[in-house]
Amino acid sequence: METQVGQERSVGAASQTSLHRLAGPMEAHKDDIEQVLISEEEIQRKIAQMGEQISSDYAGRDLLVVGVLKGAFVFMADLSRHVRLPMEFDFMAVSSYGAATQTSGVVRILKDLDHEILGRHVLLVEDIVDSGLTLSYLLKNLRTRRPASLEVCALMQKTGVQQVPLDIKYRLFEIPSVFVVGYGLDYGERFRNLPFVGTLRPEVYRDAVS
Ligand code: IMP
Fold first, then answer.
1. How far lies 23's CA from each of 15, 27, 29, 193, in Å?
2. pLDDT at 29
3. How far is the CA of 17 from the centre of ligand 1 (A)?
4. 15-45 pLDDT, tens per residue?
5. Helix, strand, coil in percent for the chain, rounding step 5
């Protein structure tokens, strides 16, 4: 596994503790990962900056953060701890790729919001925007419920593959159009607990179909 994660880390008492804590998921998947695209440190640095930005943009507003399950759960948990405002949380679950790596374009709501969003300031948190079809569908759907405002915070966006125009106010990383796992994103429900974003070795896909 090519990795920048271990090399970039400064080893103080606190980081030694977290290295030890992370050894589990990293070790379990080390033979499956081809390359680390975004290191844990980069992710955490950008999230801290984004938390500051969101704290200042939403100061004095009634913020409702809506996470899109399952992929956004790790990002949402970390981001929300950098937002210094009172806020509420809700979740939607939509169908995604399953074990395949190509979008079907068909979006199905598996779990809807628990609460009304009429008059609320809604921030929709997504893991990754690929074709953009999922997000486009969700935004259309949520707009019909008349929130006071509706913005998107996406951890990643793939470049050059978007099939619909989208206005993404907060985006942390642009990545090439490759299939990635980690930091909430899965392949066949695995790899979500990796602290970085990376690509899988081709054997992982071959083993899954054979
Ligand atoms: P879109 O509708 O094509 O934009 O796809 C959005 C959803 O597909 C994301 O919320 C993810 O659940 C999933 N997805 C897209 N690209 C990837 C990837 O590279 N790895 C894992 N899941 C992905």
1. 12, 6, 10, 11
2. 84
3. 32
4. 344 444 456 667 778 889 999 999 999 999 9
5. 30, 30, 40
One-character DSSP codes across 128-188: EESSSHHHHHHHHHHHTT--SEEEEEEEEEETT---S----SEEEEEE-S---BBTTB-BT
The closest residue, in CA terms, to atom 3 on ligand 1 is 131
| Phi, psi angle pair for 16, to nearest 5° | -65, -40
- Single pTM value for the model: 0.86
Amino acid identity, residue 134?
T
Secondary structure of 113-131 in the HEC alphabet?
CCCCCCCCEEEEEEEEECC
Tokens 């995604």, residue located: 96
Which secondary-structure segment (H or E) carries 25? helix 13-29
In the reported structure, the alpha carbon of residue 128 is separated from the centroid of ligand 1 by a whole-number distance in angstroms of: 6
Ligand 1 contact, 67 CB (< 6 A): no
Place of tokens 């210094």: 84
For residue 201, what is the DSSP state?
P
The set of residues, in sequence order, having a beta carbon less than 8 Å from that of 175 and lying 6+ positions away, is 37, 38, 156, 157, 158, 159, 197
Three-state DSSP class for 67?
strand
